[in-house]
Amino acid sequence: MSRQKAYIGRLVKRWSFFVPFTWYGLLFVVAAYLGYRWLLTLQQQPGSSYSDIFSLLIEVGAWFIGAVMALALLSVVISYIYFLLKKNKQEVGFQVETVADSKPRKKQLQVIKVKVHPVLRPLLGFVKLRLQYDEKHFSDKFSIVQKPFGKFINTTLEGTYNWPLPEIKEYKLQQAFVYFEDYFQFFSLAVQLPVNSRFFTQPFEKHKNQLDSSPRKTEDTNTRIEEIKRIEGEFLNYKNFEDSDDVRRIVWKIYAKSGELVVRIPEVLDPYASHLYMYASFYSDYETTGNNVVNIPFLNYYKTAMWSVYQQLVKKGFEIRYVADQELPVHHTTDEQQNVRYRISTSKWQRERDLKSFVKTNEASVLVISSLTSADQVAELAEQYGDEILIIFIKLSNGLRKQYITDWLQWVFVQEEKSDLAKYRTNWAVSALKSKLMKNEKKIQAILSKHNKPVVI
């Protein structure tokens, strides 16, 4: 029954997009009619010259308003029919592209660039858009910011829009609704267009923590590191003696048995390395299904902090090898940083690969974990490799400001909640997971504090 109600609700909402007038137009008609009836009652002497002149003025005013509204409606209808004919001939082009924006914002905004051609703008009117994404969600009706153009009649609608979206993830577009509205915004005629496009919201670099890490595994020798790292060959292998070898490393026992001169391969301290392996763990030791606080604001915060860590490491001059703990969609781009950004954005909490099955301790230089990670596994890993692997701990509780008593009083007595963030704070304050998460954060922080240079975000 609930699914049927939800389906009916979505269907009604969808058809409401095609209502040919706006609330402004409806209110204007009602107000104009009531005003007209009220003015008719002001005739003090019916049948007198004053009454006739007053009635004539009312009639002229009504005809003038009607003519203006008819002109507005006619311009909308012409633009609507022109666009509809072009659509039926499959001559309409609709393009949506994402625009990279590195400015940090309080809300998660995705700058999108929209281009529609051909489209005829109503006389002094507006062309607005609405987008359907992820099958059942719809954006608000919006106008795009256009660049000034020189032509009086321009059949190309092109501009940008800052779209506030709730999550850092990949979105899929299915439909677009193009609205033609008059200069009063009383009439609104919509045309539906199929769209097959996708984009992802991009995390921003907000944290400026100073990170100190260097590669543990050499692949190419082109970048010098400050700390010499031990690589394979610690007196475990042998090779035939060469003139350049030190005679003190000859293994005389082997020579006595086989008559061959062999030398030990000593440990190698290589001051050069090029790749730094960054392991990003989205493992959750807790059940988070249906928990909107963990799956939206906390996950957004974790992705933003993850991207900030990556950017800090890139600025140190190393080529970062980002290692994800889950299968991710393929993103075709030659920009490695943008590819990592996409992989971070499309990652989700998962319960299949924990730290034991994910982290390769022989190559990992940086490991990023969250408050949802098992404290026991962190303790085991830190005990063996805590001084070799830089473990960066991102406290999810920092993703929401603490709920103070003044916030509760303001919410109860002063004002209603005005944003989704306020709702998340309230839900988190009464969540059963909150106490468990806070205890786990304290355990992980205490574990990491016993090792060199713990990083907590």
Question: Keywords for this structure?
Answer:
alpha/beta; 4-stranded antiparallel beta sheet; 36% helix
Describe the structure in your own words:
The protein has 457 residues and is of the alpha/beta class. It folds into three domains: 15-200, no CATH class; 228-272, no CATH class; 275-456, no CATH class. The protein has eleven helices and 17 strands. It has helices spanning 2-16, 23-40, 49-88, 252-258, 292-314, 336-345, 355-358, 375-385, 405-414, 420-429, 433-448, and strands at residues 93-99, 109-117, 126-133, 137-138, 145-146, 157-164, 170-181, 188-200, 224-231, 237-240, 262-265, 268-272, 275-280, 319-324, 364-370, 390-394, 455-456. The strands form five sheets. It has a five-stranded parallel sheet, with helices on both faces. A four-stranded antiparallel sheet has the order 1-2-6-5, with no helix packed on it. A four-stranded antiparallel sheet has the order 4-3-7-8. The longest helix has 40 residues, at 49-88.
Number of DSSP helical runs: 11
Residues in helices, as a percent range: 25-40%
Give a count of the beta strands, DSSP E runs of length 2 or more.
Answer: 17
Quaternary state, please?
single chain
What does the average pLDDT come to? 78
In the residues, how many domains can be counted?
Answer: 3
| Radius of gyration, CA atoms, in whole angstroms | 33 Å
List segments where confidence is low: pLDDT < 50 over at least 5 consecutive residues.
224-236, 267-272, 403-417
Spatial shape: elongated
What's the arrangement of strands in the largest beta sheet?
A: 14-13-15-16-17
Structural class: alpha/beta
End-to-end distance: 45 Å
**What composes the largest sheet?**
5 strands, parallel
